[in-house]
C-alpha cells in the first residue's frame, strides 16, 4: 500500500503560480512512477503530468507543456507540480497517483490515489 497526501492547492488569480506537493508513505516510493491528474465536476480525470521512478522520464499533457513542471524528491518521498501562468480553465481538483507501469496517460493505470487538492483560478 502507498498512501498519498496532496497539499498546496488554493485560490490564485489568473497569471499566478502554485506549487502542489504530494507526500507518499507506505511502500517504497522509488518503486513507482508518479502522475498528476485533474478533474472538474461531471468530467473524467484528465492527465496532467507524469514522472518515472528515477525522475529521468517526464511527460506532460500537450496543452500544459511550458506552464507546468513535475519533479520528485525521493529523499523526501514527495512529488511536486509547479504550475505557472495559471488560467481560469486550470480550476480543478488535482490528484496525485502512483503506478508501476502501463500507459501513463490513463487514470486506470494508476494503483494508488490521493484525496485531491482544490485549485481555483480567478479571472
Concise structural overview:
By secondary structure, the protein is mainly β. Helices cover 0% and strands 51% of the residues.
Descriptive terms for the model:
mainly beta; 0% helix; single chain; seven-stranded mixed beta sheet; four-stranded antiparallel beta sheet; 123 residues
Mean pLDDT: 95
**Secondary-structure content class:** mainly beta
Number of strands: 11
Globular, elongated, flat, extended or rod-shaped: what is the shape? globular
Give me the number of helical elements.
Answer: 0
Order of helices and strands: EEEEEEEEEEE
Alpha carbon gyration radius: 13 Å
How many strands, what sense, and barrel or not for the largest sheet?
7 strands, mixed
What percentage of the residues does DSSP assign to strands (E)? over 45%
CA-to-CA gap between the ends?
Answer: 40 Å
Q: Which bin fits the share of residues in helices?
A: under 10%
The stretches of 5 or more residues where confidence is low (pLDDT under 50) are: none
